[in-house]
Design a protein that fits this description.
alpha/beta, UDP-n-acetylglucosamine1-carboxyvinyl-transferase, Chain, 2 domains, four-stranded mixed sheet, 14 helices, 24 strands, elongated, binds uridine-diphosphate-2(N-acetylglucosaminyl) butyric acid
Length: about 425
């Protein structure tokens, strides 16, 4: 298993580039199931999760090829309408094939994902929405079976904004008969990116980015050609790295307005963040100040940035409170961060962080994707050496994170653990 060894204390300076978004690429790949022909997706990050979804599409009969950051997918010959447990278990986003399969073929069989490290993460909203569109849903032997003739447009009111739930319903509704209105829809930039992609297929989607999305179903779609939006979580992770260790760290190719909530917080902490189009320059906070933060659906503070921000607040002057409202178990990084000297007490959905002068390097273990990023960031400023184990989590969602950080001065080495 690969691990990272980080020698802390090196300042970060120079230019670093943001890749395409993992969480936008995954629904984009699922959208290829909607019609025959060859789709072209560019700026696709080379990540384990992307490979998993391509593997799933292939297991259904699709073909794909990759050249540099572009992927071509042809789902013309898809005939196995099933997402097996072993794939869904490793990547919950596999559930995104459910909507397009039912819409195009009238049936699908997808494993129930089960819980995961960060929480229970049910898919009841996906299923309720598809039922509203006329699919008959049954649960059997751990699988969701969905069947229908042609889906029919309907009003769907989500109990909470759900990102992949909104995406699944958008994908399904494109080919439904009549109009679908999704209320209390998620507003994340990945939703808007999916709507842009669907428009190139001839779908009629209005309102993406707001809490009400209207989809007028069409009879037929054509293959898409689309460039994936910048990964706002990778961008945000670099922002926090800059706020911790930046000496003029320049982040390129991100979309700064997708991280307004984080940028505001970093400025409150004392970092200097200068925006200039898609170029952002960050100088570290020399005396980081404690702040409070509450995670919320977009445009609120992202749950996917909470762990990374904690690494910075661990060395702030004073006491910070981080309130996690999206997932019930997203403080898995705390025990590991505490082993590096952070003083954090978790009580339910709140983490009380008492800033300390210094973190000290040791061996820590990653438990999920964003927790891993938190530990890498902590390693950048810790005294001595930090070894982050089980970084396969990191490889699921960050494209060459250590190489990018090394190119701006971080001292990191990847090695295979005995
Ligand atoms: N929820 C339900 N029922 C549902 C769907 C969601 O109760 O049917 C709940 C969830 O349990 C959670 C809340 O609603 O409490 C929001 O979950 P959401 O459905 O929005 O999460 P998701 O779509 O499964 C995506 C990202 C996550 C990100 C969350 C929140 C993808 C592939 N994943 O997950 O990304 O944390 O939205 O923004 O887009 C990551 O990249 O590390 C990651 C976990």
């Amino acid at each position: 298993m690969d691990a990272l060894r980080i020698r802390g204390g090196a300042p970060l300076s120079g230019n670093i580039k943001v890749s395409g978004s993992k969480n936008a690429a995954l629904p984009a790949l699922a959208a290829s199931l909607l019609c025959e022909g060859t789709h072209e997706l560019s700026r696709v990050p080379d990540l384990a999760d992307v490979k998993t979804l391509l593997g799933l599409l292939q297991s259904m009969g699709a073909t794909s090829s990759r050249e540099k950051d572009s992927v071509r997918i042809d789902a013309t010959k898809v005939d196995k309408l099933e997402a097996p447990y072993d794939l869904v278990r490793t990547m919950r986003a596999s559930i995104l094939v459910l909507g397009p399969l039912v819409a195009r073929f009238g049936r699908a069989k997808v494993s129930l994902p089960g819980g995961c490290a960060i929480g229970a993460r049910p898919i009841d909203q996906h299923l309720k929405g598809l039922e509203r569109l006329g699919a008959r849903i049954t649960l059997e032997h751990g699988y969701v079976l969905a069947e229908c003739g042609r889906l029919r447009g309907a009003e769907v009111l989500f109990d909470m904004p759900t990102v992949t739930g909104t995406e699944n319903l958008m994908l399904a509704a494109t080919l439904a008969e009549g109009t679908t209105v999704l209320r209390n829809a998620a507003r994340e930039p990945e939703i808007t990116d999916l709507a842009d992609l669907l428009a190139t297929m001839g779908a009629r989607v209005e309102g993406a980015g707001s809490d009400t999305i209207t989809i007028h179903g069409v009879n037929k779609l054509k293959p898409y050609k689309h460039r994936v939006v910048a990964d706002r979580i990778e961008y945000g992770t670099f922002l926090v790295a800059g706020a911790m260790a930046g000496e003029r760290l320049v982040i390129e190719d991100g979309v700064p307005e997708h991280q307004t909530a984080l940028t505001d917080k970093l400025r409150d902490i004392g970092a200097r963040v200068e925006l200039d189009g898609t170029r952002v320059t960050v100088h570290r906070a020399t005396k980081p100040k404690a702040i409070d933060v509450v995670t919320a659906p977009y445009p609120g503070f992202p749950t996917d940035m909470q762990a990374q921000l904690m690494a910075l607040l661990a060395v702030a002057d004073g006491a910070s409170v981080i309130t996690e409202t999206i997932f019930e178990n997203r403080f898995m990084h705390v025990p590991e961060l505490s082993r590096m000297g952070a003083q954090v007490r978790v009580d339910g959905g709140k983490a009380f962080v008492q800033g300390t002068a210094k973190l000290s390097g040791t061996t820590v273990m990653a438990t999920d994707l964003r927790a891993s990023a938190c530990l890498v960031l902590a390693g950048l400023i810790a005294s001595g050496e930090t070894t982050v184990r089980r970084i396969y989590h990191l490889d699921r969602g960050y494209e060459q994170l250590e190489r990018k950080l090394m190119s701006v001065g971080a001292r990191i080495e990847r090695f295979v653990e005995a």
